[in-house]
Amino acid sequence: MTNALVGQRTGVLERVPGLPALVARAGAEAQRRYLEFFAAQIRNRNTREAYLRAVRDFLGWVETDAGITDLLDIEPLHVAAWIELKTRTYEAQSVKQKLSALRHLFDWLVTGHVLSTNPASFVRGPKFSYTQGKTPILTPTEARQLLRSIPTETLVGLRDRALIGLMVYTFARISAALTMNVKDVYRKQETLWVRLHEKGGKRHEMPCQHNLKDWLQKYIEAAGIAEDTNEPLFRSVDRKTKQLGSNRLDRQRAWAMVKRRALQAGLETTGICNHTFRGTGITVYLENPEAKLEHAQQMAAHSDPKTTRLYDRRSDQVSLDEVERIGI
């Protein structure tokens, strides 16, 4: 690499906004490896964003609170102190994800000869063991109440019903639903199917339940987007015209929509989120006597049945029924 090219690259890196001060001061190679880690090593957008928040938080804390001014001076003790601090405000699983972000970044810096050792390698995270998920779910009655309460005289209402219905009937994650294009709703075997791009690059296809089939068709027809095959399926609302625009709906706006629709339906909104509908759909499916866990696993695109069991909340109702037997 010529000196001119090195100087050009260094100049570009120095102008990149948002670099943590510790990384910026560590030189061009540290900056390049830092940027490469997030740009090239992490393909999942949600993971990338979570890791970026964790790394920025740690590097900011270690400089302001621990007084570290050089990346090379970070030690396991600093990582352990930060992890201990995070356990006071975050769930164990979230803290382990933050620790994982540091381990992977520092490993990348070590292999790039920016650091000699990984200060997060031998720091232990908090233990956790979940046999059941914590995301609130809806009962079948509540789910029907929510879906039926959405006014369908407007295009936005048709969109919202189709999106929520998609998550309920296909167990789709919100990210998979929102990354769908119009062409991901298609006809196959004389019925309507959807194509979802789930975590880990999984391409997952599901036939539509009859309600979902009807809701998707009515939304696409009303929106006039059937020919826009490579355009987003679920789109944000233009603030001026109050009509669907051309931009893809994002997770935060989808969450705000879910909270608003639940409130309008008279449901308790505490804790309800986009992921609520995945757990709702799986639990309602498994309540059917003929349902099988392995089929739920396949429908949810889970690699491990243990993950599917986390969404099975049938025991909540069993516990409530037993408690009511205490006839005091």
UniProtKB/TrEMBL annotation:
GO terms for molecular function: DNA binding. Signal peptide: none annotated. Keywords: DNA integration, DNA recombination, DNA-binding. It comes from the Bacteria. One of its GO terms (biological process) is DNA integration. The keyword Secreted does not apply. Residues 25-110 form the Core-binding (CB) domain. Coiled coil: none annotated. Residues 133-325 form the Tyr recombinase domain. The keyword DNA-binding applies. Belongs to the 'phage' integrase family. This is Integrase.
